Amino acid sequence: MYLCLVLMKRNFILKLLILMPFFAFSKADFLLPVVNDNGKWGYIDSTGVQILPYQYDLAYAFTEERGLVALTVNGEYLYSFIDVKGNLYGNWKYIEAQPYSNGFAVVRFFVDALNLSWGYVDINGMILSPPLNCSYAKSFSSGFAAINKLSGWAFINKNFTEVVRAKYADVGSYGEGLCAVALGKDSLQRWGYINSSGQQITQMIYFNASKFSNHRAAASTEIEEKNARKTIKRRVYGYIGGNGDFIIPAIYDGASDFSEGLALVKSHASEYFIDVSGVTAIRLDSGCHASSFHAGFAVVNAPGGRAYFIDTKGNIAYDYNFLTLTDFVNGFSFFTKRNGTQGYLDSNGNIIWKNI
């Protein structure tokens, strides 16, 4: 999660040309979504062969051997899940759904003709949890899921038992046994950290807080600076350890989570990566913006509409005149080029499928 950094959102609703009508069974446990000129979605395998035909109104990349798909009924999406052979799990009964995480998918469905509920389904699409008395439910992360009740955010475990009582105004996700939580609203809101039992581990003193990774979490505090004749307060970011103390000083205008030993920080309109000691590891050129590292690479978006990958040493990789790139997921990145070409790139730099 970026704190005070503009994330480069990428469009996955992509106009793709229809492939040759060859459909086979895949031996892989995941497939990649593609869409044709008519807005219908299908799936290809990791070699670019079309496995499932264009038959869905929406489709997401596979996670945990299941793909999330939707059909439009009376102008609304109804969701279900499929495996790599196209077998259906859920029978189009979910009005909201999220991809699988930690063995479960969170869904929203009608419990009767009038009432809706959130719940969690297993890999076979079976609703396991009792109806949850909440207004929103999040996916599982590190064995816990957050649910929003009238009294605030709470956490449940995989037995769907509430293990952290509902009282928080906002919550993050668990990482390394700790989770960022917030109390209060607006200018009075402050963040701190709890453990998996709900015990408060740090003071509730941060203006924003992120997920622990590499034994560090980005958090913001406030400093005073003199500007001409005025003293102004400015929020800055640093990295804390498990006891809540800053182990990398709060000197940045923005900061991301650590990923693969590196974190992206922003200072005076420049972005660069630091290591877990706070030492600058990779500097980006002026005007460039980057994502976090995934599978050994980060996406860099440069001025003029150019996108490329860098490795953990800062070397440019797979610079094929891309207009946009996504982070590698399951070893694949989706790309677009200025000439309208769209497709998938594997982590070895091979284009495994493209529409033109």
Label this structure with key terms.
mainly beta, six-stranded antiparallel sheet, four-stranded antiparallel sheet, 48% strand, globular, disordered N terminus
Could you explain how this protein is built, in words?
The protein has 356 residues and is mainly β. The chain is built from no helices and 32 strands. The chain has strands at 32-35, 41-44, 50-56, 58-59, 67-73, 76-82, 88-97, 105-110, 116-121, 136-137, 145-149, 152-156, 162-168, 170-171, 178-183, 190-195, 208-209, 217-227, 230-240, 246-252, 254-255, 263-267, 270-274, 280-283, 289-290, 297-302, 306-311, 316-322, 324-325, 332-336, 342-346, 351-354. The protein has a six-stranded antiparallel β-sheet with strand order 4-5-6-7-8-9, with no helix packed on it. Strands 10-11-12-13 form a four-stranded antiparallel β-sheet, with no helix packed on it. A four-stranded antiparallel β-sheet has the order 17-18-19-20, with no helix packed on it. It starts with 31 loop residues before the first strand and ends with a strand.
List the helices and strands and how they pair.
Elements: E1 32-35, E2 41-44, E3 50-56, E4 58-59, E5 67-73, E6 76-82, E7 88-97, E8 105-110, E9 116-121, E10 136-137, E11 145-149, E12 152-156, E13 162-168, E14 170-171, E15 178-183, E16 190-195, E17 208-209, E18 217-227, E19 230-240, E20 246-252, E21 254-255, E22 263-267, E23 270-274, E24 280-283, E25 289-290, E26 297-302, E27 306-311, E28 316-322, E29 324-325, E30 332-336, E31 342-346, E32 351-354
Antiparallel strand pairs: 1-2, 2-3, 4-5, 5-6, 6-7, 7-8, 8-9, 10-11, 11-12, 12-13, 14-15, 15-16, 17-18, 18-19, 19-20, 21-22, 22-23, 23-24, 25-26, 26-27, 27-28, 29-30, 30-31, 31-32
